[in-house]
Amino acid sequence: MTEFEGQVLADLSVLKNQMKEIVGNGQPGRLAHIEGRMLDHEQTVQRLKGMATAFGGLLTFAHVAVNFLMRRR
Fold first, then answer.
1. Which of 55, 61, 63, 72 has the fewest CB within 10 Å, making it most exposed?
2. How far is CA 32 from CA 9, 17, 29, in A?
3. In contact, 45 and 52? CB cutoff 8 Å
4. DSSP classification of residue 73
5. Is there a contact between 5 and 13 (Cβ–Cβ < 8 Å)?
6. What are the tens digits of pLDDT across the range 20-72?
7. What DSSP letter does each residue of 13-34 carry, written as one string?
8. Cβ 11 vs Cβ 4: under 8 Å
9. Among 2, 1, 4, residue whose Cα is nearest residue 12
């Protein structure tokens, strides 16, 4: 085996170990943890969008009520 082949095999071994760390070897790897965190983040963003929509509707209702009361006078 030449020096080049030995270097290639060593680099492939390092790459294989790094891929196992990222993907996981029977246990969730870094990629699974990142996916979970991203799903949690997306849920939070959707929840905040819903709260902002509800708050906007409440503000609109309050504005209409104030306008209605001001015109009655």
1. 72
2. 28, 17, 6
3. no
4. -
5. no
6. 888 888 888 889 999 999 999 999 999 999 999 999 999 999 999 999 999 87
7. HHHHHHHHHHH-SSS--HHHHH
8. no
9. 4
Q: At what angle do helices 30-72 and 3-23 cross, to 10 degrees?
A: 40
Cβ contact 8:16 at 8 Å: no
User: In angstroms, rounded to a whole number, what is the distance separating the alpha carbons of residues 29 and 45?
Assistant: 25
Determine the Cα–Cα distance for residues 23 and 31; give it in Å rounded to an integer: 6
pTM value is 0.65
**Percent helix, strand, coil in the chain (nearest 5)?**
90, 0, 10
Token pair belonging to 10: 């060593």
